[in-house]
Design brief:
The chain is mostly helical. It has a domain of about 100 residues. The chain contains 3 helices and no strands. The longest helix is centred in the middle third of the chain and has 87 residues.
Length: about 170
């Protein structure tokens, strides 16, 4: 029986020697698949990296937008305060001007008190000039604040357009 097994083994061995297994083809196919997988992994990593950068940029832009909104709100408050101060100064200016006109009229009627009234007029003129300077300063601040507010609105609008284009 061992000799028959031996002979069968030899026959089988001889038969397999004639058969060529395509190991080279299999190796090449496996290598190609591994190369393709490696390329896909690299692409995935690049896309993932770009996504993370886009998310970071988006978060940064959101933060900047929040800061812009806060600054715009502050500028709006400043603008309201300056407008209120401007209105108050205009009222004060009108009141002082009216008092000045009354005193001038009274001064012409009352010549004996002329020197006293002239002193009062000079004081009122001084106050009027100060009120006019204050009014001018406030108007300049108001104009500056308005320009700054418009600039901020333009920046926010530009940022929103840029943000929309990003998506």
């Amino acid at each position: 029986m061992i000799s028959s097994l031996d002979s069968q083994y030899k026959n089988l061995s001889t038969a397999f020697k004639g058969i060529r297994f395509p190991t080279d083809d299999i190796e090449k196919s496996v290598k190609d698949q591994i190369d393709n997988l490696q390329r896909e992994i690299v692409k995935y990593q690049e896309v993932n990296s770009e996504l993370q950068q886009a998310q970071q940029t988006n978060e940064h832009l959101k933060s900047e937008l929040q800061i812009e909104h806060e600054q715009q709100a502050q500028l709006g408050d400043q603008l309201k305060n300056l407008q209120q101060a401007n209105t108050e100064l205009q009222g004060r200016h009108a009141m002082i001007e009216t008092e000045l006109q009354k005193l001038k009229a009274k001064a012409t009627e009352e010549s004996p008190r002329h020197l006293e009234l002239e002193s009062e007029i000079a004081t009122l003129r001084s106050q009027l000039e100060k009120a006019e300077r204050d009014l001018q300063t406030t108007q300049e601040k108001l104009e500056g604040a308005e320009q700054l507010r418009q600039s901020e609105e333009s920046s926010v609008a530009h940022w929103k357009v840029r943000q929309t284009d990003t998506y």
